[in-house]
Input
Amino acid sequence: MAESTKLNLKFPKEFLWGASISTHQVEGNNHNQWTTWELETAQVKVAKAPYNYQHLANWDEIKQDALSPSNYVSGKAADHFNRYKQDFDLAASMHLNALRSGVEWSRIEPKEGVFNVAAIEHYKTYFAELKQRGITPVISLWHWTFPDWFAAKGGFAKRRNIKYFTRYVRRITKELGEHFGYVITINEPTVYAAMSYHEQRWPPEGHSKITMLLVMRNLASAHRKSYRIIKKLQPKAQVGIVHNCAYYYPGDDSWISSVVARLGHKFSNEVFINRVKRQQDFFALNYYFANQILGTRVHNPDDNQLNDMGWDMQPDKLRPLLVRLHKKYKIPFMITESGVADSHDKYRKWWIAQEVKAMDGAMKDGVPLLGYIHWSLLDNFEWAEGFWPKFGLIAVDYKTQQRTIRPSAKWYSRLIRTLS
Ligand code: BGC
Output
């Protein structure tokens, strides 16, 4: 592992080297459909924790958190809403020149049709402060959380609700448009639709394939409409939708493995994007997984390393994934998320090094790449799992709100200096 982190590569001067966060996961004190659900389900999650996590190698380390209701309530989170200047200073000290962050719809429009001027002003200052530090914002307009009133109307499961989202997008574009360089309308629509409407894992814990497909259709439509609104008001903005893609590959030379791998790629990575491909200035890619297919199943190599959440790690597969997607879509790519839950900071440096090599390889193969935005800048609230998974380049002590740059992040920051 050690020698693979010695890199001697050249990246374009304007390449974005960054980190990503999302509002709900770090801001603290939010009031949205997710916070309501957190309070309702914390006890159930505690009861299910042994079943969900006991198989993990680190169960002994995480069980105190996993068995505590407060783990599942975002509460103050990393208090980024108040401490963002400090966090931006840290990002700047790490030589990051990009940060993917966003605006929280539930703060901006807490009541239907009533826009909160103070919240809008907050985000104006927020992005201005970021730019003052020489950091390019990549602005997410929606990362899975919305106001309770929108949830009460049925959220994205109802086609007629799309107009509320586009009204919010229009308002935000008018207010924050001057900061719009790169804009993400929606984060991982297919993951959200599956987890919230089919797998019963996230609010509103739906269990219907049909609703999941309707939500995907509505999110695609919401993106297309938002794209047009943003481009009309801010023609220079580069607009994309974040898609989470896994690399599917056959693990043997049987015809069945190769057909299933091809189908996996098509359904997971292409079907949704085909609906929005004309409204996509760049492909915003979130990468966490590769799936080796044996026969009809995913069976990753037994000797692969697992992260703290038990996820199989194959960062090198980013290269063939980028090449395959670029062959089809032929637009520039930005890695808008990729990272590891790694509380001991054992794998993060290796993961980044492998991905940097993979990106270098992909660029040599002809893929235009705009940047690498690592997930995450800070430890954060990991949705249904709560606080125990640690994705941060910067560790957060939730008792004191103390930030500590992890060794892998110090290495990343040295790497950025040598590569830019
Ligand atoms: C999401 C993040 C999440 C990360 C790690 C991505 O799918 O966009 O919000 O924290 O994965 O699970």
User: Anything to note?
Assistant: The mean pLDDT is 97. The first helix runs from residue 23 to 26. Residues 22, 25, 187-188, 191, 244, 286, 337, 375, 382 surround beta-D-glucopyranose (CB under 6 Å). The radius of gyration is 20 Å.
